[in-house]
Specification:
ligand-binding face of the semaphorins, domain 2, 7 domains, elongated, IPT_dom
Length: 632
């Protein structure tokens, strides 16, 4: 633009003082557009005495010397209209093309960048050269063949927040920090002051933000001070101030440079924790009057809620939480602050450093069962559990209890502590006979330990004992003897034969050899002479395992081959019949080892199918479903 201005001034000077000719005698300036006036030769001071103005419009001077420069910008269509605006120290060009596109171009040094474009009028309708800015420089009038449009030079108000304002990259816009809106620079009352107006086009321009909080969270039970670090915070006048808004609670801010100190709300002004949580997070905003200058979130935590949310391991939850909570083992309280109440030992938060007794590993805890986890119903059982870190109770009148969560009942048993090497020990629960209401063979029962009757020790993992009743699911001798040996179940053949835990069986009543097999039903009772029929045998004491019956079954004195996948201990055998002459008949016989065989009262008959061809077994499916095919 400077070179263009100098070239225009040179043409005017030559037309005033040298008849339009340059030092070489060549014509470099003339009066254009068919005007009869000609360039003249006047005194050399004439250009200063008679500067160009509106009165010269009838005699327009044109330069003959071309001015060559590299283009700042190349567009895809020919430019049909140009207007320019200088505002806030920046040059903005408005270019219209022959297709109706209007471009807003930021002229910055030796570069031109289109930062916005829009269609004006119907596509293909050229923008007229008569682009006109209004007197305030806020709107541009754009003329096409069919319409006139009044277009804002900048659309700053359409950006609702700082982020969208700066992302717009509009050189005429910026964020007015204390007004909380996107404006032209002239519309921001303190734009000339440092950090008051953030220019949208500046590369490293960032919205004000809270860079850090110290502390990052606070216990809800007490008021305290929070320090916000806010880089590039504007400076206020002496009678003005910032304030902090913790949700609905306002607190006056004290500012020192980029650091802002605010007092947190009292406990009754902190909202309640959402159900099932140990904290509440509220918006924290740094405000000027009713304008949010910067914002973040801030959490108020409750150590007692941490404890309540993890009943099985309250100490581990307390000292292992993200909050700075400590555990008081003697009173079983999770507390904030520096330590437990005076005189009580403290297990410190895992976040503490240079403290030995800290973190979940220091908690009094039950590590597991010291003996078998299987507990027979009706037998007086002694339970022992491995514990660690009970030295916190040493020297105190501490008592312990074991608790079992039985169906519909919480059973408490007095317990004693046996200290072993180091910080380990054993909790011995008082011997007890259990008679729970059981609808299943084995019943998992959670177990835990308390100091006193309510102060629970941590379980390092889910801890159970398994109550079992040998009689459940073992209706006969074979079922009983097939039970897992670790259960110790035996068949008692006393006045009321039953499967019982071994020590509960009277002396001499244990039956090591089960009664002979008993066959209750056979199905079907007829089948094809070719064999291949799946025969189902139901009864009791039909073996403890498939190996007992694999070669033990015959039908009408013909072998019947048991199917292993369909065998059910003691209760069911499914076997495939062998061929036999038509008319052969006889009972089903099951002979297990040296026992007397079980013989059915029903007889099976091999016979041809009267209706034509007898369907024969072509395969066994799930649960004894037999697939038949046509006889061949």
């Amino acid at each position: 633009m400077v070179e263009l201005g100098a070239s225009m001034e040179q043409a005017r000077r030559l037309c005033y003082t040298a008849g339009g000719r340059g030092p070489s005698g060549a014509e470099e300036a003339t009066v254009e557009y068919g005007v009869t006036s000609r360039c003249v030769t006047l005194p050399l001071d004439s250009p200063e005495s008679y500067p160009c103005g509106d009165e010269h419009t009838p005699s327009p001077i044109a330069g003959r010397q071309p001015l060559e420069v590299q283009p700042l910008l190349k567009l895809g269509q020919p430019v049909s209209a140009v207007a320019a605006l200088q505002a806030d120290g920046h040059m903005i060009a408005f270019l219209g093309d022959t297709q109706g596109q209007l471009y807003k171009v930021f002229l910055h040094g030796s570069q031109g960048q289109v930062y916005h474009s829009q269609q004006v009028g119907p596509p293909g309708s050229a923008i007229s050269p008569d682009l006109l800015l209004d007197s305030s420089g806020s709107h541009l009038y754009v003329l096409t063949a069919h319409q006139v449009d009044r277009i804002p030079v900048a659309a700053c108000p359409q950006f609702p927040d700082c982020a969208s304002c700066l992302q717009a990259q509009d050189p005429l816009c910026g964020w007015c920090v204390l007004q909380g809106r996107c404006t032209r620079k002239g519309q921001c009352g303190r734009a000339g002051q440092l950090n008051q107006w953030l220019w949208s086009y500046e590369e490293d321009s960032h919205c004000l933000h809270i860079q850090s909080l110290l502390p990052g969270h606070h216990p809800r039970q007490e008021q305290g001070q929070v320090t916000l670090s806010v880089p590039r915070l504007p400076i206020l006048d002496a009678d003005e101030y910032f304030h902090c808004a913790f949700g609905d609670y306002d607190s006056l801010a004290h500012v020192e440079g980029p650091h802002v100190a605010c007092v947190t709300p009292p406990q009754d002004q902190v909202p309640l924790n959402p159900p099932g949580t140990d904290h509440i997070t509220v918006p924290l905003a740094l405000m000027f009057e009713d304008v949010t200058v910067a914002a973040t979130n801030f959490s108020f935590y409750d150590c007692s809620a941490v404890q309540a949310l993890e009943a099985a391991a309250p100490c581990r939850a307390c000292v292992g939480s993200i909050w700075r909570c400590h555990w008081c083992p003697q009173s079983s309280h999770c507390v904030y602050g520096e330590h437990c109440p005076e005189g009580e030992r403290t297990i410190y938060s895992a976040q503490e450093v240079d403290i030995q007794v800290r973190g979940p590993g220091a908690c009094p805890q039950v590590e597991g069962l010291a003996g078998p986890h299987l507990v027979p119903v009706g037998w007086e059982s002694h339970l022992a559990l491995r514990v660690r870190n009970l030295q916190h109770f040493r020297g105190l009148p501490a008592s312990f209890h074991c608790w079992l969560e039985l169906p519909g009942e919480l059973r408490g048993l007095p317990a004693t502590l046996e200290e072993t090497a180091g910080d380990s020990g054993l909790i011995h629960c008082q011997a007890h006979q259990f008679y729970p209401s059981m609808s299943q063979r084995e019943l998992p029962v959670p177990i835990y330990v308390t100091q006193g009757e309510a102060q629970r020790l941590d379980n390092t993992h889910a801890l159970y004992v398994i109550l079992y009743d040998c009689a459940m699911g073992h209706p006969d001798c074979s079922h009983c003897q097939a039970a897992n040996r670790s259960l110790g179940c035996l068949w008692c053949a006393d006045g009321q034969p039953a499967c019982r835990y071994g020590p509960l069986c009277p002396p001499g009543a244990v039956e090591l050899l089960c009664p002979a097999p008993s066959i209750d039903a056979v199905e079907p009772l007829t089948g094809p002479p070719e064999g291949g029929l799946a025969l189902t045998i139901l009864g009791s004491n039909l073996g403890r395992a498939f190996a007992d019956v694999q070669y033990a079954v015959s039908v009408a004195s013909r072998p019947c081959n048991p199917e292993p996948s369909l065998y059910r201990t003691s209760a069911r055998i499914v076997c495939v019949t062998s061929p036999a002459p038509n008319g052969t008949t006889g009972p089903v016989r099951v002979a297990i080892k040296s026992q007397p065989p079980g013989i059915s009262s029903q007889h099976f008959t091999y016979q041809g199918w009267v209706g034509g061809s007898w369907p024969v077994c072509s395969g066994l499916g799930k649960e004894g479903v037999v697939h038949f095919g046509p006889r061949r």
